[in-house]
Amino acid sequence: MKQQHQLVPKLAQIGKESYIDPRAIIQEPENISIGENVVIEVGVVLRPENGSIHIGNHVTINHFSVIHGKGEVEIGDWTIIAPHVGIFAQNHSYSSFKEPITLQENKDYGITLMGDNWIGANSVILDNVTLGKGTIVDAGAVVKKSFPMGYVIAGNPAKKIRERLSDKTKWQHITEERFSPLRTPDEYLNYVELRVEYAKRLLHQDDLVLDVGCGEGYITNKLRGHCRRIIGIDYSEDALKVGKKLYNLEAFHMNTTHLVFDDNLFDKVICFEVLEHLTRLQARKTLSEIHRVLTKGGLLIGSTPIRTTPSSEPKLYAHIYEYSKAELQQILCEKFKIRQIENTFFLAEKT
């Protein structure tokens, strides 16, 4: 039987059948959680730096890869990390010449690999990056920004070289991450219109509104005439390009876990069909950021599929975690006062 790393008992969590080579370098084990059936090979460095590293189930981290988790790193289920990969959830500031770079502010926002990712050898992933489920990073790439689900990216800086979907002209329900006004069949449009109508009833003409996960902007555009101003954000640049071309949207490429807006800015935040596409840690960070940018008494208007079965295993590849009603209540109550949970819709207030 293989010998385990001596610090395994001190980890915050380690699941069954997981193995850490004794020659791996583990710092601050109490800030590292590891799921089931994980393999961490020779020379891997796990360094939380007072942050945290969360590794899901069925993950393999190959030889001499380095993970710095100051801003939190989350590695989703079934991810493969090849040898000599660097994942760095922090970045030095260097604006001043009055003090050494090492003494200047060290910024950290976090990195999330959402699962079923393959990270090629000698590639580097920098801070404030989210990689969608199933996205592949080519060997030697340097990833400086977020990419959505099912892409293959390569180069320095990394760019999309193709999509994994075999037929990009056909909207496929199981593997699609978002509604597309150009490609989604009409049979799904009624569900989207229900979200539009739900939001319309809650918006006022003087509201400043943020649409989190706006995608190609169909709903964002429909709500324009019902508020003073609406701004969209999404982690897919391609989706935002479509939205700007179709609707001339005011929208920004941004992670939901790091909203680059001032505190107490928005009267309402819309979050339709987003939570199920996030990991549970991402969802908590997203709700915390939404709470921060909302004004006191501001409303979070959202929807997500409500699970009615004991199993949390999603039926769609594009979904990562689907909440029961009790779980949704629990995660919302951490930051908000719940006003309503009905069918797939929820309404919460910043008190």
What is the fold-level CATH name, i.e. the topology of the largest domain? Answer: Rossmann fold
* Number of domains as seen in the coordinates: 2
Uncertain stretches:
none
Shape: globular
The total strand number stands at: 31
For the record, what CATH class of the largest domain applies? Answer: Alpha Beta
Total of helices? 5
Note the main sheet.
8 strands, mixed
Summing up helix and strand content along with how strands pair, one would put the structural category as: alpha/beta
Arrangement of strands in the largest sheet: 2-5-8-11-16-19-21-22
Distance between the termini: 55 Å
Radius of gyration: 21 Å
Mean pLDDT: 95
By CATH, the architecture of the largest domain is named: 3-Layer(aba) Sandwich
Estimated helix fraction: 10-25%
Strand content: 25-35%
Assigned CATH superfamily of the largest domain: Vaccinia Virus protein VP39
Describe the structure.
The chain is α/β, with parallel strands linked by helices and 351 residues long. The chain has two domains: 8-163, Hexapeptide repeat proteins (UDP N-Acetylglucosamine Acyltransferase, domain 1, 3 Solenoid), CATH 2.160.10; 186-349, Vaccinia Virus protein VP39 (Rossmann fold, 3-Layer(aba) Sandwich), CATH 3.40.50.150. The chain contains five helices and 31 strands. The protein has helices at 189-200, 218-222, 237-247, 280-293, 325-333; strands at 13-14, 19-20, 25-26, 32-34, 39-40, 45-47, 53-55, 60-61, 66-68, 73-75, 80-81, 86-88, 91-92, 106-107, 111-113, 118-119, 124-125, 129-131, 136-137, 142-143, 151-154, 159-163, 208-212, 229-234, 251-253, 266-272, 294-303, 306-307, 323-324, 337-342, 345-349. The chain has an eight-stranded mixed beta sheet, with no helix packed on it. The protein has a seven-stranded mixed beta sheet with strand order 25-24-23-26-27-31-30, sandwiched between helices. The protein is globular and about 60 Å long. The relative contact order is 0.08. The model has no long low-confidence stretch (mean pLDDT 95).
